[in-house]
Amino acid sequence: MSSGEPESTAVAHGQNDPAHNDLPHEGHAHVDKADDGYHKGLKTRHIHMIALGGSIGTGLFLGAGTRLAKGGPSLALSYAICGVFAFIMVRALGELSVRRPSSGAFVSYAREFIGEKGAYATGWLFFLNWSTAVMADITAVALYLHFWDFFDPVPQWLLALIALALVFTLNMFSVKYFGEAEFWFAAIKVAAIVIFMLVAIWAIITGHAVGPGRAGFANLTDNGGFFPMGLMPMISLSLGVIFAFGGTEMVGVAAGETAGAEKVLPKAINSMILRIFVFYVGSVILMTLVLPWSAYSQHESPFVTFFAAIGVPHAGDIMQVVVLTAALSSVNAGLYATGRVLRSMAVAGEAPRFAARMNKHHVPYGGIMIIAGLGLIGVLINYVFPSNAFEMVMNMAGIGIAGTWISILVSHWIFVHKARKGEMTRPEFHLRGAPVLNAVTIIFLVGVIVAMWFDPTGGRPTLMIFGLVLIAMVVGWFMVRKRIKGELLDSILDT
Q1: CATH code of the domain covering residue 45
Q2: Burial class (CB in 10 A: 0-12, 13-18, 19+), 172
Q3: Which end of the chain has less Cβ packing within 10 Å, N or C?
Q4: What is the pLDDT of residues 201-258, one digit of tens each?
Q5: What is the pTM of this model?
Q6: Which residue range forms the structural domain that includes residue 55?
C-alpha cells in the first residue's frame, strides 16, 4: 500500500465516500476489506518455497505409488499434460494476484468478476478441496509412521489425530512462523527428490541391483512398455494427478501477506513449470526405470520402496522421515490457505461469522479451527476404513481442486475481456494466449471430472457423493444469500 496510510485507516478511506467507488480503475487499486488486519510477514524466500512446496506434496510422495500400480509408466505422461494445464491456471492466478494481492485470493477475484454466487461456489469448492486434502494428508502421516515397528501398537486414527493437533498448533502463531516452517518443509522435500533422482540415475547408468532385479530400461520394456494397461487408466487417473498439483494455487493466497507481491510472484510462478517437469515427470520416469511399475503400492511411498530396495542401510528409514515431512507440510499449507479463504467468505457473509475472528498474531484462528475440526472427520475415516482412507478422500479433493481452478480461469477470462474493452488494465506480468488457453484448460478439467464416471470402483462413487455436496451448497446459498454483504470491494485507494 503505497499511499503510506495504515492498513486499517486506508480500508476505511473508501467506505465513507460512496463517490470514491466510481473512480476509474486506471491508477487505482482495489482493496478487499477481508484483508484488513493481516500482517505482511512473508518474505521472498518464503514465497518461493511456498510456490514450490505447494506443488510438491503427498500426491507425489504417496499417491504416485498408487497410480503407478494402477496405470504403469503412462503416469509420467499424465503428469506432463496436467502439469501444463496447472501452469496455465497458476499463471492466470498470478496475473490477478499481481494486479490486486489478496489473502482471499480466487474467492475475492470471483466476487469481483463473477459475482457473489461465484465467490460462494469458489470458496466452498476450495474448502471441500482442502478439508478433504487435510484428511488425506493426516492419513498419509499415519501410514508413514506405521513403516516403523515402534508405531505398530498405535492405532492409525490416533497418529492422524496427533499430526492434526501438531500442525494446528503451529498455525496459531504468526504468519512468519508458518512461512518459516513451510520454507524448511519445502527445502527438505526438494533435497529428497534431488537425492532420489541422482541416486536413481547412478543406478540406471551402472545397472545397479535394485531389489530382485537391476535398474535399467529393461524394467520398462519387459513389463508391458509405456502403456501396459492401455490409455484408459492414464485418463481415469488424471484426477489423482490434479490432486497432486493441488496447492499450486496457494501462492495466490500467500500474496495477500507478502510485501512487494508484484515483484516476488512473477519469479516464483515462472519457475513452476520447470519444477513440475523436473520433479514430477522426471521422478516418475526414473521410478519406472529402477524398478518394475508393479513393485509399487498404495501403502508405501515409491521413494521409500526404491531406497529400501537399493540395499543401503537405513536409506528407507531416512526417506520415510522425508516423506513424513512432506505430508506435514501439506497439512500445514491446507490449514493456512483455507483459514484465510474462510475468513474472506465470513467477512462477506458467506461463511460462519466465527471464521472471521483473528488472534493477536494476525492469524484467522476461527477459519483454521473450523478446517481443523473437519479434519477430525478424517480421523474417523481412518478409524472406520484404515485401508482405503487415503484414496477415498483424495478423489473428492481432486474435484474440489478442479472446481477451484475452473473458477480462477473464468475470473481471469472475464478480467481479460474487460481489459480488451478498455475498462481495466492488465499488468505487465500476464497470461499469454488468453482467453483461448483459459477455454482449453476448462474443457480439459471438465473432461477429467466426467471421465471419473467410467471408473466404477472409485470415480463413480466419488461423483455420487459430490452430487450430494452440490445439493448442500445450493441449500446453503439460499440460507446465506440475504445476509451477504454486496460491496466488499468498495475501497479504492490511490496507488
Answers
A1: 1.20.1740.10
A2: middle
A3: C
A4: 999 999 999 988 899 999 988 888 888 887 777 777 787 788 778 777 766 666 655 6
A5: 0.77
A6: 39-448
